[in-house]
# Entry
Amino acid sequence: MSSVSIQQLGVRMGAVNILEQLDLSVHEGEFLVLLGPSGCGKSTLLHSIAGLIDVDAGSIHIGGKDVTWADPKDRSIGMVFQSYALYPTMNVERNMSFGLRVAGLPKQEIAQRVQRASKMLQLDPLLSRKPSQLSGGQRQRVAIGRALVRQAEVFLFDEPLSNLDAKLRTELRRELKQLHRELGATMIYVTHDQVEAMTLASRVAVMRGGRIQQIGAPGEVYARPANMFVAGFLGSPSINFVHGQLTIAEGSAAVFRAGVLDVTLPRDVFSAAPPAQAEAVLGVRPEHISLLPAGEMHPPAEVTLVEPMGSHFVVWVDMQGQRLSAIVTSAEPPAVGDRVGVAMDLARACVFDARTEQRL
# Structure
């Protein structure tokens, strides 16, 4: 396993900058997930690491070696694409061993590598089958096995589960996490699926517009987002944003007001000393909102929609024009049209500058 270091990377497509002055360090043995919406540059970054795209500026180092202009075959990488890209006329064993045979490795070593990978991926009973005789999940496991037999220093995954149904995605997600634990290899994984990112990653790098917005452990990025984009991209249902006015009152109390909402915020929700007065946005996740019987102690709201989700309900309320979602775990949620009180766990809230959208 090896580390990956990217410095001041720039990639252009025609007159458009896809990546610009991007820096990224991937530690040895970690599972880094590049997360972001379509078109944010995450696949371009992965393909640059793989050598499939020429860069316009910056450098890429794998295991301390400068591979910026090295051919893909000389970068000691194994790559798994969104499409399986299997040879239809070859069986599973020959698909997995094809690259090794082209490289001229001894037959015994090829057999040992294929046997080890097929055992790890539970492909032993399928080695004689052709791709047309496999399910989507089995084909993707073969594609992963083809990368594993290379015994690469870094494994790259470009949205490998996006073509699978929900059940298969869950199963393969679990297998990938177990595979990383067994191999201890460095893995870089691209996805737009936040569930994949949160469950697989050692660290998550959230991207937007060719730039990394925030990088950190999944729990850290989720609980303390650097800006409104990161906060809004992670979480389902999405975080609630309430636009209002922040004021530092006497005694250094931070007061946030927005319509009927008038709350004092704990000082530790701020990443730095807040301004004396500012237009601000309060971010509260649905699981940190409680719905109580209507009363004078809590801002009033009306239930507008109830979504059953199996283990819980997502309840949408209207708080004098402000639409909020709350997760309710009780067996009997409030009904549409009910009047409720809204209570927020402010210790877990986030506050953002309304102009810059950065966390205060």
